Amino acid sequence: xxxxxxxxxxxxxxxxxxxxxxxxxxxLSAAGHKVLHIDRNSYYxxxxxxxxxxxxxxxxxxxxxxxxPQLDLHIGNGLFAIDKPGPIESxxxxxxxxxxxxxxxxxxxxxxxxxxNDRAYMVEPVPKLVLxxxxxxxxxxxxxxxxxxxxxxxDHNYLVTRQGLERVPESKEDxxxxxxxxxxxxxxxxxxxxxLGANLEKPEGxxxxxxAQQFKLTGKLHDTVLYxxxxxxxxxxxxxxxxxxxxxxxxxxxxxxRMAYLCAxxxxxxxxxxxxxxxxxxxxGTYILDEKLECIEPNEDGFKVSLRRGTAQVSRIVxxxxxxxxxxxxxxxxxxxAVCILDNPVLGTDTTCVLTFLDEGSVVSLLYVxxxxxxxxxxxxxxxxxTEGTIASTKPLLxxxxxxxxxxxxxxxxxxxxxxxxxxxxxxxxxxxxxxDTSVDFESTYDAAQQVLSMINKPDTRI
Amino acid sequence: MHGRRRQTTQEPTVDEREQNKxxxxxxxxxxxxxxxxxxxxxxxxxxLETTKRLLDLNTELHTVWNYRREIFTHLxxxxxxxxxxxxxxxxxxxxxxxxxxxIKSYWMWNHRIWALQSLPRPGWERELGLVAKLLxxxxxxxxxxxxxxxxxxxxxxxxxVDGQLEVDAREFAFTTEQINKDCANHAAWHNRSKLFxxxxxxxxxxxxxxxxxxxxxDMILNAIYTDPDDQNAWLYYDWxxxxxxxxxxxRKLLRDKVATIRELLELExxxxxxxxxxxxxxxxxxxxxxxxxxxxxxxxxxxxxxRLKEVDTYHIGRYKDMSKTMSQQWGGIC
Lengths: 463, 334
Fold this sequence. Notes:
The structure holds 2 protein chains of 2 kinds.
Chain A: E1 5-15, H1 19-30, E2 35-38, H2 53-62, E3 71-75, E4 78-81, H3 91-96, E5 99-101, H4 104-115, E6 130-131, H5 135-142, E7 151-153, E8 156-161, E9 164-167, H6 172-177, H7 183-196, H8 207-213, H9 219-229, H10 239-252, E10 261-264, H11 268-282, E11 286-288, E12 293-299, E13 302-307, E14 310-319, E15 329-342, E16 353-359, E17 362-369, E18 381-388, H12 391-406, E19 411-422, E20 430-432, H13 443-456
Parallel strand pairs in A: 1-2, 1-14, 2-11, 8-16, 14-20
Antiparallel strand pairs in A: 3-4, 3-19, 4-5, 6-10, 7-10, 8-9, 12-13, 13-14, 15-18, 15-19, 16-17, 17-18
Helix pairs in contact in A: 1-11, 1-13, 8-10
Chain B: H1 14-39, H2 45-57, H3 62-74, H4 81-99, H5 106-118, H6 124-137, H7 142-157, H8 161-181, H9 186-201, H10 206-226, H11 231-242, H12 247-267, H13 272-288, H14 295-311, H15 316-330
Helix pairs in contact in B: 1-2, 2-3, 4-5, 6-7, 7-8, 8-9, 9-11, 10-11, 12-13, 13-14, 14-15
């Protein structure tokens, strides 16, 4: 096999090996497309990738700076503002050059100490869970991807406020045994779970209104259902949307255990992406990593694409919008994220938790992972937090959220960064996917893939 | 097992039919051999072995279990204590294997009890552990619960009064655990009612007694509010009220019950159990202290009964009858 493309013909070129693109690649290849799948990185997964600690820190130096313009690295009390790309040799020394304030030598020591266990970390810039009953899990089972992946159940769901953490009851047993719910609240919650577990017919208005009026939920109970179960974040959920989400959540409980979500070991997004790429390759897909898309020329049969390793003639292109060059980063769609290493597994050593922090109208989603999912070495914990808005406006909020959960544990290393959504204009023959959103599970990834696939399969689409 | 669907069987294939035929023939031959041995009063080790093979195929042959016990007692080894211990321990292991095939077999449980009672040194603590495991597989199996009560009784025989109280307390905690896992576990509530009087007697003074009662009522309320349609908690509630000796206490508790149910009914308008229990509580109050129930409340009872006729049509006859009796007794409130 030559390592040079000589104007070879492919039905579809797929650019970017994120989870969405990989699902699409597998589906098209299985349907008979000759697929060429490329990625500019030397690893699979794109925005869903998973890294060792050094890999993650390398990513901070080599990331797409249009998409992630600002990134603050905190080690101890040292702050390092990584605001421009840098070479990746001598990683620690390189990171130190971004020093802005705080104790430099202690930070260097701490970092070296953490890196001694480098391979025991599996860090994802964009972590997500799998709902136990939903489209993504069905796809994984259906395609046999389940054979390649290992999961742990998400043990607890917490609602967090400045006053502290409260467990969200997830079953009749939880509700019965709860000491923080009043009797009346228990009744209301049970009624809600049984009613919405069976699906309401055409509810109207907003979900928040429905909870207040039909189920008479108030205060903390109302917030628990709205934010910790239906997971309303930025915009107000319609009653139908909220009911669908609660329905999915309630019906996920009990399928594989007492939890509603699964958390993959070794990074869910990365494992999903790699598994689907593997399947695509098995049915004939061609894979090239470290590949640059240099030029796209439309012609009567589709496009002539120039890559580093040669040219190819493709009938259509599926592309991660992050690859579209003259991209302008939309400022109205910004997500701020935090990744924090704790020196003490405060919520349990072998535990995985999903949390929601409510504070003065803001909602922060959090994940707490440990060695249970191979995310950190034993004795430590990893916390992810994210919310909508720029880092400038949300960093204190994210720090507060992590702080309330971490309690006595120290945050030895943390990274705060903002991700701007990149969009591309609609073009004939090029199908843009979308980038990972703020939802906590992969259902939206599945939906995004299906959206592109249905557009490709439309009868009037240019072949 | 509770809450699990039966598997529907499919028509057997020709091969399967042939296999089944051969199995049946083998079984009948073995059965014939064993019955023959029994008729001829053969009590040898070989005969014992044949009964084992037969019982392995079919655990429900109580005659064969009887015969097996007879053989055991006729063997020479039976007279020697150590050898008997060994034989019966092997027997218990054998029973453990086959009980998993059919947890609900009366004969196997009886045989196990016989073996334990014949053992020179029975291991009752070990039996307790075994039952706990069984109940974790099927929490409502009454064989399991009955056996547990039997084992507990045996355990208490070998200890002094303090030891007995300890056993009761431990069993009480076990029911708490089971109820926390599933508040609809009828068997656990029932066992709790058997143990609660003993636990009450352990209280050193009146406040402690009151405390124990309060905990029980809290647990019941939790169960009622979690699932008002499940009758377990309501039955236990009635039983708890029934064991009150002090009339004044009982009246207060009945009033508490009425208030609680009224609150619950605000959330659950047409739920059968709260409704009928409210009527029951008011009737009990009136019986205990004639005149303590107001005429408004009496009217409320009759209203509830007529709503119940629509909510629970299976028992419409009962509600009609109760309405008639109430109207007569309470005179002209309709």
